[in-house]
Design a protein that fits this description.
There is one protein chain. The protein has a 5-stranded mixed sheet. The longest helix has 23 residues. Helix content is 44%, strand content 20%. Helix 3 packs parallel to helix 4. It is an alpha+beta fold.
Length: 180
Amino acid sequence: MPVRDTGRVLGKPNWEDIDRAAGLPGYPRRTAAEGLDETRRAVHALHAGTPPLAEVLADLSSDRQRRYGARVSFEVTGAPRALSADAGLARTRTAQESLVNTAKHAPHQPVGVRPGYHEGRTALTVVSRLAGQADGHPALETVNGGYGLAGMQERLLLIDGSLQAGPDDGNRVVTAQVPR
């Protein structure tokens, strides 16, 4: 069998492979740091009292804009009111997951975060541009074992809430509703 010359010298490193491998630890490190920040905020909230939900959502929006360099608009409709701890947590987690999803699936695209207080229910709507999605339909499960939309939906169903997610006129719209 003839030996084929591949042009590579054995024992000499392939710098492209090394550079690519060197960048891999960055993603898990960033994800772990974000999770740790989130945990610290939760522990702080337990000790310091929970700030108003609109303030928490505004902070999440500002944080997303600062971290990812994408414009985030924030608009509250209706008169903010206190929610149960479960409903507030469900809305906060929905906002967090939605903002993470926009960073993953539509980086650098503008995002709108709109908490709304309506008769009998409160809503949270997160709108982002679709960025090259094949069909625009978000999956209810994630490949990496994350909770994604399925986790949001389960959390909301536990408190008699609802989740709607899907494309709308070139945008991805996620709307979570919780009892008053």
